[in-house]
Amino acid sequence: xxxxxxxxxxxxxxxxxxxxxxxxxxxxxxxxxxxxxxxxxxxxxxxxxxxxxxxxxxxxxxxxxxxxxxxxxxxxxxxxxxxxxxxxxxxxxxxxxxxxxxxxxxxxxxxxxxxxxxxxxxxxxxxxxxxxxxxxxxxxxxxxxxxxxxxxxxxxxxxxxx
Length: 162
Fold this sequence. Notes:
By secondary structure, the chain is an alpha/beta fold. The protein has helices spanning 9-12, 35-38, 54-65, 117-126; strands at 46-48, 68-76, 79-85, 92-97, 110-113, 135-137, 140-146, 152-157.
């Protein structure tokens, strides 16, 4: 079972909004929603990272990558919820047992933006993380690394806009 499966049925997902004016789909069009809904922010807050060994992964992300450990709860014997946040990020990652059905190591290409990719790379290397050389592209400079399970990350330094 996954984390969503641990939620009561009433909290698993909202039913789609229906409209009799659209018999083909029965769904409301974006333009029919109230302005407060059409223009609200949708903020990505939590991304699952599937791992085989929760304690090893937590240690890697906190001690070597530099994430903050926000929560570590053993909710039930089948559900452990560990929330970690990259420095300065509004979005966190969750790892644990029972939080995702993804295979360990299958989360590929997570990307975070840093002010100085060379300094970020040096910090990773200093803490024992294998990090790629800097790849400079017109849209940014990148460094990649992987966690012990093979989930991959990219650090991006966005070029000055001007």
